[in-house]
């Protein structure tokens, strides 16, 4: 209990003078190139460590998985049907001119399973699941729920982020499968019923070009996408500040950053796949 | 009972913006302290730093022999179990009802049976006066009830230190009075160390044993309630008495020219208002950490402003105190006399 009536010391740190303008630019650059990625990777590492903590939060996992499924399934199916149909339409027309209608099935498979389905999955994981997750975590952050949790001795990464990450990854797997099936189905309907292709040819060429690794690489992509989207959403959501507007900004940034990361990962995994897995000849 | 916290030379900044610098104070074990300051002076930041949610740039926070900013993650989580924190809006988990919210720490940290959990939770719900509302969701109840529920959750692990972030913000004066009374009663009951962060002067004048004032990025003064309420230091005096005259202006601080103009006009800051008697527990008891009215003033030879320590009933508590304490000393079976000084 000390009495310390101090004389005023004016040292306002915001009185930076001329240096402030330049300083804020360099600050901004350093922030974007070093600090943000640094903090993001710190969160990734912490989350990774929290993954191996016992017990796994099954309840949260199941609730979240169900939640993500509920916001993504319908849009996924709705996007996948026209995707398959359009591919059949575009490529089918071209292939018919070359007189190779019987390969329509093969093109559909290759296009849909290898490339289109991971993209559609990425779209929905980032746009629907990631944004919803970020909004949820951000709202909890600004309502101080996250702080309260930490003070109560519970690690929010373990309790909230890890189950969300796995939920997102597993729903990604499921969505990718769904897109493949619905897309190929859509292609089949379009090709066989509307363009007068034969079912036999469609299925035969399907077999000729498709191979299991195609599906596996797509599923690996979907899994990685899910993990990435959840981590970005967690990073942005848990870093939200400044009231409801802060949450809005965080959601916005989550969607943009996740899209960029997912397209990059898609490219990298595809490149690796073509390097290491031999393709079937047609 | 209760744990002492010693803060030494604590400084916190976000980037280039210093929030406060070189804050040193000791929260005495078992006492109620209030940290007062205008909005945006970093009171919430101070609370969060105390529980290790934010890392200070420099300085120490000693709890026993542990220096909080320098603990390993494991020890930090251990040490946090000493704390209960009431966040500004209760910070209840929005997806759980009040009962589950309050039971949450027990279910996470103890292996107690559900019936045991039920007993403890209902006891705390009763303590904060929320019986009957335990099935409600946080979104369905008023701000005052959310704060009470947040308080019940903070109490459930029997903390040694309780931190309150603006318990009186967003409440009407009547609810504020009830909540302040609840805080005093709780302190009498569990004897933990309390720190209340607020900008409400009435709370600061009547509730605590100690007051600190945070202003212009530093701790202006910290000490016993009577010391600050009788202080002539311009900032302290202006803030504790809610005056326009003084160094604090509309936009955080007045500039020098304004102050000079004021000095020329020769506004007399006037007499200090009387020091109100301290809020007492409802049952008329005496808190263990409470010191007799006027004792600090007497020990330091300071004359209190006229009319000090006189309650609504006109009793002078400097004289009333010895009688009151004598009447309270355990004569077996004696009925506690009702009613301390009113507000
Ligand atoms: N996480 C944060 N990052 C950056 N600035 C912050 C953060 N938290 C608080 N601040 C800033 O610290 C200052 C004090 O905030 P606060 O502690 O909430 O004030 P109050 O005394 O009203 O509780 C404000 O200017 C606020 O913008
Ligand atoms: Mg605050």
UniProtKB/TrEMBL annotation, chain A:
Cited Pfam families: MlaE
Domain of life: Bacteria
Transmembrane segments: 65-89, 166-190, 220-238, 250-274
Keyword Glycoprotein: no
Keywords: Membrane, Transmembrane, Transmembrane helix
PANTHER family xrefs: ABC TRANSPORTER PERMEASE PROTEIN-RELATED, PROTEIN TRIGALACTOSYLDIACYLGLYCEROL 1, CHLOROPLASTIC
Name of the protein in question: ABC transporter permease
Organism: Actinomadura alba
From TrEMBL, chain B:
Pfam families in the cross-refs: ABC_tran
InterPro entries to which the protein is assigned, alphabetical: AAA+_ATPase, ABC_transporter-like_ATP-bd, ABC_transporter-like_CS, P-loop_NTPase
Gene3D superfamilies in the record: P-loop containing nucleotide triphosphate hydrolases
CDD domains in the cross-refs: ABC_Org_Solvent_Resistant (cd03261)
The organism's place on the tree of life at top rank: Bacteria
ABC transporter domain segment(s): 5-241
Any one GO molecular function term: ATP binding
Residue ranges, annotated region (Disordered): 283-313, 324-343
Protein keywords: ATP-binding, Nucleotide-binding, Transport
Protein name per Swiss-Prot or TrEMBL: ABC transporter ATP-binding protein
